Amino acid sequence: MSKYKFLFSFYASLVLLSLLVFGIHILVLDSLGHPLFEHMILMAYWVNVLMAILIFSILYFFRFKWKDQIGFLYLGGSMLKFLIFFIVFYPVYNQDGSMDTLEFSSFFVPYLIGLLLETFFTAKMLNKLH
């Protein structure tokens, strides 16, 4: 189990930070009088958390075998997240011909949380390899 302590540390950090930011996000929407659960916000948080878990898990399990390619795998994971955005979210957000700030923040706030944690933990993992 201690073999996976670092991985589970990432999972716990991601889930807890995402829940915290989601709560703040909802509070801000409420305080500004905006609808709380529109713009696929729940799905955006779920998808971003699950994608971050998947991508970081792949990086973690291949850290020794492909340690010189981890950066490329990381970038590939980021590209995959953007692909998911353009396939799943963008068509819905752009139905009226434009994407407003609420739609943008619904996806990119959780995306940013995942990106920051993935970057931090990937850098930490790579430092342990060298």
TrEMBL record:
It comes from the Bacteria. Pfam families: DUF6168. The chain crosses the membrane at residues 7-28, 40-62, 71-92, 104-123. The keyword Nucleotide-binding does not apply. Keywords: Membrane, Transmembrane, Transmembrane helix. This is DUF6168 family protein. It comes from Arenibacter antarcticus.
